[in-house]
Amino acid sequence: MPDPSLERLRSVVAAIGPVVVAFSGGVDSALVAWVANDVLGPDRALAVTAVSPSLPDVERASCAELAESWGLRWRVVETDEMTRAAYRRNDPDRCFHCKDALMDAVVPLAAAEQATVVLGVNVDDLGDHRPGQRAAADQGARFPLVEAGLTKHDVRRCSAELGLVTWDKPAAACLASRLPYGTSVSVDLLGRVERAERGLRDLGFVDLRVRHYDDLARVEVPPSDFPRVIDGRDEVVAAVRAAGYRYVTLDLEGLRSGNLNEALVPEAMRSANAGPDR
What is the pTM of this model? Predict the structure, then answer.
């Protein structure tokens, strides 16, 4: 029996018509790109990957591999967020300026295709601080996963049923998300974070973040990986220090995607929501 979530997504994409998919290679945009290619065909579905210093090289390579494997019509565009002072300032609206730059690069392509820009935003994303969604919507983008009512769990389940290799891919965010709000974004800092994370991946860690605090790197991995970090402490420290950090710490709360947004919530509210066992 067909998955009703997947059938809803197919119907939404078909109704939208020709699309340009903002294709980061993550589980959400990958499902949208695959379904768009399957429903509309490559003549009416273009996958576009935005390249800038905030995109790890490994993610760009992954997009290229997926596009070739799935027969997507695919191209790369460069975005200019690093030239924007409002982006480099890295305040809580940083993602707005990044997504605005993406849309500035992609909208002309969509106009030439007589198509609509679509992004891989799912229902669960609506509950987090994500000003980039507003920037995209302001320029006419649509979110097929949201329109079809798909949560992150639905996206992974549908991807697995389709046999997509991305179904269990860890969540990934741009490198700028590793810098606390107020720390100016620069190519140098983004490169340092990328080198540190690449070094840890070379040691076999898959799901991870390296948060930047000047000379200190705060490593986040799932708690299940804590023993591996401790057992391989010397190698872990060496890999992160090789990227330019002096101090290396392990976050005992474990990997939390988007956890720097906690700084936007007043401490009293966090304590109230945490309950007595925090």
Answer: 0.87
